[in-house]
Protein backbone atom coordinates (compact mmCIF):
# COMPACT_ATOMS: atom_id res chain seq x y z
CA UNK A 1 0.00 0.00 0.00
CA UNK A 2 1.16 3.51 -0.81
CA UNK A 3 0.04 6.77 0.75
CA UNK A 4 0.10 9.92 -1.36
CA UNK A 5 0.19 13.39 0.22
CA UNK A 6 -0.43 16.58 -1.74
CA UNK A 7 -1.59 18.90 1.08
CA UNK A 8 1.89 20.35 1.01
CA UNK A 9 4.83 19.23 -1.12
CA UNK A 10 4.27 15.85 -2.79
CA UNK A 11 5.08 12.91 -0.54
CA UNK A 12 4.77 9.18 -1.19
CA UNK A 13 5.04 6.80 1.73
CA UNK A 14 5.29 3.05 2.02
CA UNK A 15 5.09 1.04 5.26
CA UNK A 16 8.86 1.43 5.36
CA UNK A 17 8.91 5.23 5.15
CA UNK A 18 8.97 8.14 2.73
CA UNK A 19 10.01 7.60 -0.89
CA UNK A 20 11.64 10.18 -3.13
CA UNK A 21 10.53 10.82 -6.71
CA UNK A 22 13.62 12.25 -8.46
CA UNK A 23 13.42 15.43 -10.51
CA UNK A 24 10.87 18.21 -10.73
CA UNK A 25 9.47 16.92 -14.03
CA UNK A 26 8.60 13.51 -12.64
CA UNK A 27 7.27 14.99 -9.40
CA UNK A 28 5.06 17.35 -11.38
CA UNK A 29 3.85 14.48 -13.54
CA UNK A 30 2.87 12.43 -10.47
CA UNK A 31 1.06 15.49 -9.09
CA UNK A 32 -0.91 15.90 -12.31
CA UNK A 33 -1.94 12.25 -12.27
CA UNK A 34 -3.06 12.59 -8.64
CA UNK A 35 -4.95 15.78 -9.51
CA UNK A 36 -6.80 13.74 -12.12
CA UNK A 37 -8.52 11.89 -9.24
CA UNK A 38 -8.76 8.61 -11.07
CA UNK A 39 -9.67 10.02 -14.48
CA UNK A 40 -7.79 9.26 -17.67
CA UNK A 41 -5.73 12.27 -18.72
CA UNK A 42 -4.69 12.81 -22.31
CA UNK A 43 -1.08 13.13 -23.34
CA UNK A 44 -1.78 16.72 -24.41
CA UNK A 45 -3.03 17.57 -20.91
CA UNK A 46 0.05 16.05 -19.27
CA UNK A 47 2.39 17.88 -21.64
CA UNK A 48 0.71 21.22 -20.91
CA UNK A 49 0.81 20.64 -17.16
CA UNK A 50 4.44 19.55 -17.10
CA UNK A 51 6.07 21.78 -19.76
CA UNK A 52 3.56 24.58 -20.25
CA UNK A 53 4.21 26.71 -23.32
CA UNK A 54 7.72 25.32 -23.86
CA UNK A 55 7.38 21.58 -24.52
CA UNK A 56 10.35 19.63 -25.89
CA UNK A 57 10.48 19.02 -29.63
CA UNK A 58 9.90 15.30 -29.17
CA UNK A 59 7.22 15.79 -26.52
CA UNK A 60 5.46 12.45 -27.09
CA UNK A 61 8.68 10.47 -26.64
CA UNK A 62 9.73 12.61 -23.69
CA UNK A 63 6.37 12.08 -21.96
CA UNK A 64 6.42 8.34 -22.54
CA UNK A 65 9.95 8.12 -21.17
CA UNK A 66 8.94 9.86 -17.95
CA UNK A 67 5.79 7.73 -17.66
CA UNK A 68 7.91 4.58 -18.02
CA UNK A 69 10.29 5.73 -15.28
CA UNK A 70 7.44 6.49 -12.91
CA UNK A 71 5.77 3.15 -13.67
CA UNK A 72 9.00 1.30 -12.91
CA UNK A 73 9.47 3.27 -9.70
CA UNK A 74 5.95 2.51 -8.50
CA UNK A 75 6.30 -1.16 -9.42
CA UNK A 76 9.49 -1.37 -7.39
CA UNK A 77 7.65 0.03 -4.37
CA UNK A 78 4.89 -2.59 -4.67
CA UNK A 79 6.44 -5.64 -6.34
CA UNK A 80 3.43 -7.82 -5.45
CA UNK A 81 0.86 -5.51 -7.01
CA UNK A 82 -0.73 -6.45 -10.30
CA UNK A 83 -1.64 -4.74 -12.57
CA UNK A 84 0.40 -1.53 -12.55
CA UNK A 85 -0.91 1.54 -10.74
CA UNK A 86 -0.08 3.66 -13.77
CA UNK A 87 -2.53 2.62 -16.48
CA UNK A 88 -2.11 3.54 -20.14
CA UNK A 89 -4.80 3.06 -22.78
CA UNK A 90 -6.17 4.97 -25.80
CA UNK A 91 -8.02 7.35 -23.47
CA UNK A 92 -4.76 8.48 -21.88
CA UNK A 93 -3.01 7.88 -18.57
CA UNK A 94 -4.49 7.14 -15.15
CA UNK A 95 -2.94 6.66 -11.73
CA UNK A 96 -4.94 4.19 -9.65
CA UNK A 97 -5.34 5.41 -6.06
CA UNK A 98 -7.38 3.33 -3.65
CA UNK A 99 -9.71 4.65 -0.95
CA UNK A 100 -7.76 6.07 1.96
CA UNK A 101 -4.49 6.47 0.04
CA UNK A 102 -4.72 10.20 -0.83
CA UNK A 103 -4.59 12.72 1.98
CA UNK A 104 -6.68 15.32 0.13
CA UNK A 105 -9.54 12.87 -0.39
CA UNK A 106 -9.33 11.81 3.26
CA UNK A 107 -9.41 15.45 4.30
CA UNK A 108 -12.57 16.24 2.30
CA UNK A 109 -14.27 13.08 3.61
CA UNK A 110 -13.51 13.99 7.23
CA UNK A 111 -14.74 17.56 6.80
CA UNK A 112 -18.01 16.31 5.34
CA UNK A 113 -18.40 13.91 8.27
CA UNK A 114 -17.71 16.70 10.74
CA UNK A 115 -20.33 18.94 9.15
CA UNK A 116 -22.90 16.18 9.58
CA UNK A 117 -21.90 15.83 13.26
CA UNK A 118 -21.80 19.54 14.08
CA UNK A 119 -25.27 19.94 15.58
CA UNK A 120 -25.50 16.58 17.36
CA UNK A 121 -21.88 16.23 18.53
CA UNK A 122 -19.95 19.51 18.30
CA UNK A 123 -17.12 18.18 20.48
CA UNK A 124 -16.65 15.19 18.17
CA UNK A 125 -16.86 17.45 15.13
CA UNK A 126 -14.23 19.76 16.60
CA UNK A 127 -11.83 16.86 17.23
CA UNK A 128 -12.34 15.50 13.72
CA UNK A 129 -11.78 18.93 12.17
CA UNK A 130 -8.59 19.52 14.17
CA UNK A 131 -7.29 16.17 12.98
CA UNK A 132 -8.27 16.92 9.37
CA UNK A 133 -6.68 20.38 9.38
CA UNK A 134 -3.48 18.88 10.81
CA UNK A 135 -3.06 16.98 7.52
CA UNK A 136 -2.04 20.24 5.86
CA UNK A 137 1.73 20.74 5.70
CA UNK A 138 1.66 23.79 3.40
CA UNK A 139 0.17 24.91 0.07
CA UNK A 140 -1.18 22.14 -2.15
CA UNK A 141 1.74 20.69 -4.18
CA UNK A 142 4.21 22.86 -2.25
CA UNK A 143 6.56 24.88 -4.45
CA UNK A 144 5.62 22.98 -7.64
CA UNK A 145 2.12 24.33 -8.37
CA UNK A 146 1.99 22.80 -11.87
CA UNK A 147 -0.18 23.92 -14.75
CA UNK A 148 -3.80 25.07 -15.05
CA UNK A 149 -5.41 21.83 -13.91
CA UNK A 150 -3.18 21.47 -10.86
CA UNK A 151 -3.75 25.09 -9.90
CA UNK A 152 -7.51 24.64 -10.23
CA UNK A 153 -7.39 21.56 -7.99
CA UNK A 154 -5.26 23.47 -5.48
CA UNK A 155 -7.84 26.28 -5.32
CA UNK A 156 -10.62 23.75 -4.72
CA UNK A 157 -8.81 22.06 -1.86
CA UNK A 158 -7.90 25.43 -0.34
CA UNK A 159 -11.60 26.32 -0.35
CA UNK A 160 -12.29 23.07 1.49
CA UNK A 161 -9.64 24.05 4.04
CA UNK A 162 -11.30 27.40 4.70
CA UNK A 163 -14.67 25.68 4.97
CA UNK A 164 -13.16 23.29 7.53
CA UNK A 165 -11.85 26.23 9.54
CA UNK A 166 -15.30 27.86 9.54
CA UNK A 167 -16.85 24.62 10.78
CA UNK A 168 -14.17 24.26 13.45
CA UNK A 169 -14.77 27.77 14.79
CA UNK A 170 -18.54 27.11 14.75
CA UNK A 171 -18.00 23.96 16.80
CA UNK A 172 -15.78 25.72 19.31
CA UNK A 173 -18.21 28.63 19.67
CA UNK A 174 -21.09 26.22 20.21
CA UNK A 175 -19.08 24.61 23.01
CA UNK A 176 -18.49 27.99 24.69
CA UNK A 177 -14.76 27.95 23.96
CA UNK A 178 -14.62 31.46 22.48
CA UNK A 179 -11.63 32.59 24.53
CA UNK A 180 -9.60 29.59 23.44
CA UNK A 181 -9.99 30.37 19.74
CA UNK A 182 -9.90 34.16 19.90
CA UNK A 183 -6.25 34.57 18.86
CA UNK A 184 -6.56 32.01 16.07
CA UNK A 185 -9.77 33.62 14.83
CA UNK A 186 -8.18 37.05 14.73
CA UNK A 187 -5.19 35.72 12.80
CA UNK A 188 -7.46 33.88 10.37
CA UNK A 189 -9.58 36.99 9.81
CA UNK A 190 -6.44 39.03 9.09
CA UNK A 191 -5.25 36.38 6.62
CA UNK A 192 -8.66 36.33 4.86
CA UNK A 193 -9.98 39.85 5.34
CA UNK A 194 -12.82 39.58 2.78
CA UNK A 195 -14.27 36.30 4.06
CA UNK A 196 -17.27 37.47 6.03
CA UNK A 197 -17.88 34.29 8.00
CA UNK A 198 -14.55 34.63 9.82
CA UNK A 199 -15.49 38.22 10.63
CA UNK A 200 -18.85 37.12 12.06
CA UNK A 201 -17.21 34.46 14.21
CA UNK A 202 -14.57 36.88 15.48
CA UNK A 203 -17.24 39.41 16.39
CA UNK A 204 -19.17 36.80 18.37
CA UNK A 205 -16.02 35.60 20.16
CA UNK A 206 -15.07 39.18 21.07
CA UNK A 207 -18.56 39.98 22.33
CA UNK A 208 -18.67 36.86 24.46
CA UNK A 209 -15.27 37.80 25.90
CA UNK A 210 -16.67 41.13 27.10
CA UNK A 211 -15.18 43.16 24.24
CA UNK A 212 -18.24 44.70 22.60
CA UNK A 213 -16.32 47.77 21.43
CA UNK A 214 -13.73 45.62 19.67
CA UNK A 215 -16.47 43.50 18.10
CA UNK A 216 -18.16 46.59 16.62
CA UNK A 217 -14.82 48.00 15.48
CA UNK A 218 -14.19 44.72 13.65
CA UNK A 219 -17.53 45.15 11.86
CA UNK A 220 -16.78 48.76 10.90
CA UNK A 221 -13.38 47.79 9.49
CA UNK A 222 -14.99 45.00 7.50
CA UNK A 223 -17.70 47.33 6.20
CA UNK A 224 -15.05 49.84 5.08
CA UNK A 225 -12.95 47.18 3.36
CA UNK A 226 -15.93 45.70 1.50
CA UNK A 227 -17.06 49.15 0.40
CA UNK A 228 -13.65 50.42 -0.72
CA UNK A 229 -12.24 47.27 -2.29
CA UNK A 230 -15.32 45.57 -3.72
CA UNK A 231 -17.98 48.30 -3.77
CA UNK A 232 -20.46 46.12 -1.87
CA UNK A 233 -22.28 46.22 1.45
CA UNK A 234 -21.90 43.62 4.21
CA UNK A 235 -24.06 40.54 3.78
CA UNK A 236 -27.37 40.22 5.66
CA UNK A 237 -25.74 37.59 7.88
CA UNK A 238 -22.93 39.95 8.92
CA UNK A 239 -25.39 42.79 9.51
CA UNK A 240 -27.47 40.49 11.74
CA UNK A 241 -24.45 39.88 13.94
CA UNK A 242 -23.81 43.63 14.26
CA UNK A 243 -27.47 44.23 15.14
CA UNK A 244 -27.40 41.42 17.70
CA UNK A 245 -24.34 42.96 19.37
CA UNK A 246 -25.89 46.44 19.47
CA UNK A 247 -29.11 45.07 21.00
CA UNK A 248 -27.35 42.61 23.33
CA UNK A 249 -29.35 39.79 21.80
CA UNK A 250 -29.27 36.74 24.11
CA UNK A 251 -28.62 34.53 21.07
CA UNK A 252 -25.01 35.75 21.12
CA UNK A 253 -24.33 34.09 24.46
CA UNK A 254 -26.27 30.89 23.82
CA UNK A 255 -23.79 28.01 23.77
CA UNK A 256 -25.39 26.42 20.70
CA UNK A 257 -25.89 29.63 18.69
CA UNK A 258 -24.03 30.08 15.40
CA UNK A 259 -26.21 32.83 13.83
CA UNK A 260 -26.11 30.94 10.51
CA UNK A 261 -29.30 31.48 8.54
Automatic annotation (TrEMBL):
Residues 1-97 bind DNA. Residues 1-97 form the OmpR/PhoB-type domain. GO terms for biological process: phosphorelay signal transduction system; regulation of DNA-templated transcription. It holds the Pfam family Trans_reg_C. Keywords: DNA-binding, Transcription, Transcription regulation, Two-component regulatory system. The keyword Protease does not apply. It comes from the Bacteria. The keyword DNA-binding applies. SMART domains: BTAD, Trans_reg_C. This is DNA-binding transcriptional activator of the SARP family. It comes from Streptomyces pini.
Amino acid sequence: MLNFSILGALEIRTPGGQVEIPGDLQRTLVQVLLAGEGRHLSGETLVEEVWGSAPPGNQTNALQAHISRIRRRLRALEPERRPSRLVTNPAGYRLVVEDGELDAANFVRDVQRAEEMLLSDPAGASRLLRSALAMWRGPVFGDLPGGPMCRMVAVRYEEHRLWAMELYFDAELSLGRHKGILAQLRETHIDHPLRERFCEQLMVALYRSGRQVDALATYRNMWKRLSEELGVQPSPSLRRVEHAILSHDPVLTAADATLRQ
